# Entry
Amino acid sequence: MGFVRNLTGKTAANAAIKGADIQSEAATLAAEQVGIAGEQAGTLVGDAGTLAGRQISQGGRQAGALLDPFQAVGQQGVDQASFLTDPQAQFDFLQNNPLFQLGLDNANRQTSQLAASRGRLSAGDTLTQLNNNALLTASPLIAQQKQSIGDLLNLGQGTAFNQGNILQNTAGSRANITQNTGLNLANILQGTSANQGNLLTGAAASEAAGLVGAANARSAGAANVLNLGAQIGGYFSDPALKTNINLIGNENGFNIYSWDWNKEANELGLFGSNSGVMANEVLKKEPKAISIDRGYMKVNYGMIGVSH
# Structure
């Protein structure tokens, strides 16, 4: 399992933290620029201009304070998904995950059964395949989690771009204040209130988007674990576990049936009705897709291209 230790993801984690730092620095610079614009307006229009400058400085400080949580949101995502960045956490997560272990055990069982049937249990290619099973089992999950980190990084880039626009708009506002002085005083006060509202609204919306993105990333990772376990482990589809069997269609060359689980299936935790293929029919066409669990046949639907 040493391969897990090499899938560190530290570069992506550091980039996420750096992105949060850039956001904080850009917010501070934007606040300073707004403050300078307020001071210049105050010099030109006297007490009224000073009041406008104070309003702009206050808005910039409030905007900067609202941007501070973005760094905390980025750190929260890293903390809650530590196995994406910490090789030891990745290793511990996979070792303690029952679905991962189930998938790996089934993959190793299939490899051993195939090797035994060919009399190659101790052969080098069999040992290599057993070592590769762990990597093949973990790779889809880790790839999905890396994609989630990339989504968080994209959010940080978008925030930095918006902050650049704030700086540009602030510079333009300062030029207008210098040119129009007293005439623009009322517009400055009105525009400051509107800009503050936009900053508050935009910051809150971005913060909410970051929280939702982090939650979705974690949900996607959990769903990937479930799908991974099901894909590798297969599904019970032995006719001996079914009753009231009815042919309902065909998919990818395989007959599709509906059925009710019988008492033997109930003992395996299977209840109610279901639909899919018959393991005995799959065994004839695609024997590699069949595995045995507690004396009953399972079907790996991913190997036969059937979605039921």
